[in-house]
């Protein structure tokens, strides 16, 4: 198994948090962590694999993971390449297909291997949601997944200027790691909670510099792919989006809901909420919406 346990945090309350390094087939070392309910293993009802958004890292979801633990769900998370504690240039992604492949590999080699027979769900925020969505379009992944949760998924991202769509593919080859200073906006409006913004942009593991050309082009590329393939989505899903999100398009989440072939799908739109839903003032209400959906899916599976 291509994973090496580094340390364990005993924690307090209802969770045990573990940290590990996962080595990909490409040889990259990815930082991963997991949260397990501290009671007997038979308390675990299912697994949630969590993928963070662009420029952040999995540790930001510690509070959310512990809430899931309280409801009998074990959580795994992975910092994708160029993010958090993983290998790569900070904030640089040469290919989001690598991140999709890494998620598949982590799911098969670690998560399913360690939790045979337990129902597995995927959670993705923003670009992490796009990665999750592309991954489950692969039948080899979908067969292992009982449902996905997407918060503010990057199905459609509007560049700040139309010319970017034209020049990004060119410059992503000529100068892939170049940082587009003209497009840099430190602290974009992603939450209505000032304290949450302060914590995010003071976090050394959060990339706060200008977006790198290749990274930006990769986001445009994966979002374009997803828009062309929404009707191929068949996995059960819950998509959540704030109507005031200026980072990703809430209308694209509505199109996913309308166009997908999924038999079991739900959408929650939050009036006036911004991009980082789990860091909004109403974060616990949003977490409860997610937990209620997961509980309903687990109830359905238990009746089969």
Automatic annotation (TrEMBL):
Protein name: Monoglyceride lipase
Transmembrane segments: none
Domain of life per record: Eukaryota
Serine aminopeptidase S33 domain ranges (all copies): 43-282
Provenance organism: Oryza sativa subsp. japonica
């Amino acid at each position: 198994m291509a994973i090496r346990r580094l340390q364990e945090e005993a924690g307090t309350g209802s969770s045990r948090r573990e940290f590990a390094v996962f080595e990909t087939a490409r040889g990259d070392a990815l930082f991963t962590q997991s949260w397990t309910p501290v009671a007997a293993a038979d308390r675990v009802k299912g697994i949630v694999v969590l993928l963070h958004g662009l420029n952040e890292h999995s540790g930001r979801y510690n509070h959310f993971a512990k809430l899931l633990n309280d409801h009998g769900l074990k959580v795994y998370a992975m910092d994708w390449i160029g993010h958090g504690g993983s290998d790569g240039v900070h904030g640089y992604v040469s290919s989001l297909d690598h991140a999709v492949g890494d998620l598949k590999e982590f799911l098969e080699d670690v998560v399913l291997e360690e939790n045979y027979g337990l129902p597995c769900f995927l959670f993705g925020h923003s670009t992490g949601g796009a990665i999750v969505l592309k991954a489950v379009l692969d039948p080899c992944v979908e067969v292992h997944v009982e449902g996905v949760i997407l918060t503010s998924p990057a199905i459609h991202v509007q560049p700040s200027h139309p010319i970017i769509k034209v020049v990004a593919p060119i410059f992503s080859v000529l100068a892939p790691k170049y940082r587009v200073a003209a497009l840099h906006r430190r602290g974009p409006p992603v939450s209505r909670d000032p304290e949450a913004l302060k914590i995010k942009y003071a976090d050394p593991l959060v990339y706060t510099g200008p977006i790198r050309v290749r990274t930006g082009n990769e986001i445009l590329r994966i979002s374009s792919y997803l828009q062309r393939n929404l009707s191929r989505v068949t996995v059960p899903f819950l998509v959540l989006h704030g109507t005031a999100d200026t980072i990703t398009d809430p209308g694209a989440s509505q199109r996913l809901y309308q166009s997908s072939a999924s038999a079991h799908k739900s959408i929650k739109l939050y009036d006036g909420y911004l991009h980082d839903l789990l860091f909004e003032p109403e974060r616990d209400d949003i977490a409860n919406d997610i937990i209620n959906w997961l509980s309903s899916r687990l109830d359905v599976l238990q009746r089969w």
